[in-house]
Amino acid sequence: MKTVKITLNGEDKTIENVPEDMPLLWVIRDIVGLTGTKFGCGKALCGACTVHLDGNAVRSCSLPIGALEGKQITTIEGLSQDGDHPLQKAWVKANVPQCGYCQTGQIMNAAALLSRNANPSDEEITSAMAGNICRCGTYNRIKEAIQIAAKEGGNG
Amino acid sequence: MKKTNKSTVTKIDRRDFIKIGSVSTTGLLLGMHVACSPKPVEEVRPEPTFDFYPNVYLNINDVGDIKIIAHRSEMGQGVRTGLPLIIADELEADWSRVSIEQAPGDEAKYGNQNTDGSFTIRMFYMPMRRAGAMARMLLEQAAANQWQVDVSECKAKNHEVVHSSGKKLGFGELAKAAAELEAPKEEDIKLKDKSEFKMIGKATPIVDLQDIVQGTAGFGMDAKMPGMKIAVVARCPVAGGKAKSHNAEAAMAVPGVLQVVELNSPDFPTAFNPLGGIAVVAENTWAAMKGREALAVEWEGGINAGYDSEQFLGELSTNIKKQGTVRREQGNLKQTFNGASEVIEATYKLPHLSHASMEPPCALAHFEDGKCEVWAPSQHPQWAKGAVAGALGLEPTDVTVNVTLLGGGFGRKSKPDFIVEAAQISKETGQPIKLIWTREDDVQHDFYHACSIQHVRVALGEDKKVMGWNHRSSFPSIGGTSNKDADEPSAGEISLGMVDFPYDIGTICCETHKAPAQARIGWLRSVANIQHAYGVGSMLDEIAHARAMDPVENLLDLLGPDRLIKFDELVDNFQNYGEPLAEFPANTARLRNVIKTVAEKSNWGKALPSRKGQGICAHRSFLTYVACVVEVEVGDNGKITIPEVHYAVDCGVAVNTDRVKSQFEGGCVFALSGALRSSISFKEGKVEQSNFHDYELARMNDAPGKIHVHIIDSDEKPTGVGEPPVPPVAPALCNAIFAATGKRVRELPIKLA
Question: Of the four, B249, B272, B341, B730, which is 20 to 30 A from B722 by CA?
Answer without folding.
Answer: B272
